[in-house]
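Example protein as discussed:

>
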Amino acid sequence: MTDVNRPGGGLSGWGRVITARPRLALLLTLLFTALAVVAGSGVADRMGSGGWQDPGAESSYAAKALEEHFPASQPNLILLVNSGEATVDTPAVAAEARRLAERLEREQSVEGVVSYWATGAAALRAQDGHEAMITARIAGDETDAAKVFDRIAPEYRGSHGPVKVSFGGPVAVRHDMQELVKEDLLRAELIALPVTLLLLVLVFGSAVAALLPLGVGVVAILGTNAVLRGITEFTDVSVFAQNLTTALGLGLAIDYALFIVRRFREELSRGAEPLTAVGTTLRTAGRTVLFSALTVAVSLAAMLVFPQYFLRSFAYAGIAVVALAAIAALVILPAALVLLGERINAWDLRRALRRRSPGSGVTKDGWARAARLVMRRAPVFAIAATAGLVLLGLPFLSVRFGNADDRQLPASAECRTVQQHIRDGFPGSPGAAVEVLAEGAAAQPSALADYSRRLSELPGVVRVEGPRGAYAQGRLTQEPGPAEAARADGDAAYVTVLREGAAGDAAGQDLVRAVRTEPASFPTSVAGPGAALVDSKAVIADRLPWALGMIAAVTLVLVFLLTGSLLVPVQAVVLNALSLTAMYGAVVWVFQDGHLSGLLGFTSTGDIETTLPVLMFCVAFGLSMDYGVFLLSRIKEEYDRTGDHRSAVVFGLQRTGGLITAAAAILAVVMVAIGASRVTNTKMLGLGIALAVLMDAMVVRSLLVPAVMRLTGRATWWAPGPLRRLHARIGLSEEGTPGGVPAAERPRTVVPSGAE
């Protein structure tokens, strides 16, 4: 029997434990999975669907203060009352509407009820006279508000005598979005799992081998749901994070399992005993998996520098699923491989299509030929690939950022229909209003009136409503009354600036900035969708350099520890970033500009939600590094063995090209299944990342990396003496010794003339 303690032939401590008691390891995994199912049950019901705003921004402060002092100013629930053929002022319609409003006022946790029939406010009555609004605020956080909405919505929705009631507002939008996300996620899983299994069978041939990655993925997904359930006890988590959990859980589990199972089968084909093959696999592919998981986790962890819980949720989910996928791959797979041994090739469903036995290298020979071709014409391939990626990314130069709103939902959603009616048929675009909290202004009535008058003169303003009446174009158009008096509470007051247009358009953002710079003799702060967008863009611009710097710095260090080179880490960062250009260009061309909107089934809003490009960068960059690590580890392993740079590059692509392409194709299938969602942002995330991983596998890893490494030659592996010695002490090596022996310090292999 192989001596597992012998250098080069054994396992590390954890590996020895797993392979010594494989059945126990699998039993404990099964127990963990069962507990995770219980712990993670109902996690989606505890998640929120917001989190795009900066909680520390001026707009968030103002919104919270207005909610506390003037709940009617921050309605999150809208009852759109349709009077049919009659008008909303018809006595029977008015009587029924008042009854509904009075009933709503008595509902527990509902406050700030305001209706057109009680106030006569023009902003609450449609211009055609057949619709009007009752607005209210459901108190509490998103979870509490959702429970109240679930309780009261069935009682009010539908026909009530002469009127018909439909629901809109942020609470209704969040409710519909959460329901759609849960339904779409289940559908994506039902699509992705069987298709993934089929692709894995085509990759491995063996049905037994194909089932192993799915097992790892299921453990990672269920474990992450349990982790997220625990996190919801302490902080807000976005429901959208579950989509990332499914996609990364399956994708990374498949990546890691492909790499480990492929290496194990290679060792078996060389005549190694199963235990020895597992030992070699863990010392080589296992180390690479750990390293890859670390690089992906770092990319996702960068989202923690942003204050929006939408982004932070993806960091929580991403880090958890990456860690669990890696742990599962390094616990479940070694145990299963020891028990299976040669039976890993059982149930060969591809036998009739395969001309040679597993490991003979039909496809590998093709990858070797492709690598040699690319390296012979390295300048041509490098320039063409780079120019093509840059060209595909050019549409991103015209990107416009905006808020996520109800138009993410399908046109059939009730709340979207209501919001569209409000946008199209009500004066002054109430959804685009700017709310101004004026602290101490109630004690200065003349100063507040003058301030409201000056605000009404700002470009694009239709009307300003406040405690001192309503102003338009600098003139008082409505004397103060009971409704206006309700806009003051103690020393605080608020005014509403109404304008035409969408909430987050350029004019709306300019108005927010203009209001904030308008002088006042009392402290003011601005709330509203436009203000939230301005603040969100500002905080992302402020934190983005820190996030990018963190990703770049840690990636440079980790790739140096893997390779001992000064140039390879820089190449990895630059080429990874370049691989994302097509994704960004496509996002703008498709989702902002609306191309293919009919085919893909979404409505273009003319902008991109502010946080999505950050999220997509962190996820796609991490996945690109995942593939990059797989390729670089095999190239470095061969270069350390032979000292021949060109043959090492060919060998690395030969051994991993098919694996990376298969992994990218499978992950793309999962992401496309996620992208089939009826929620636009989820569709954008899924389809965008699917494109990014395919471009990375087919263009960057297959063409750019070998071309660039051919151009840099042996200088690729250069590092100053102190760094070489540092790498020799603390670097990572697939041979199980720190740093290995640098190729520069080995006897050089003679390379035929012209090979370099």
The radius of gyration is 30 Å. DSSP finds 25 helices and 14 strands in the chain.
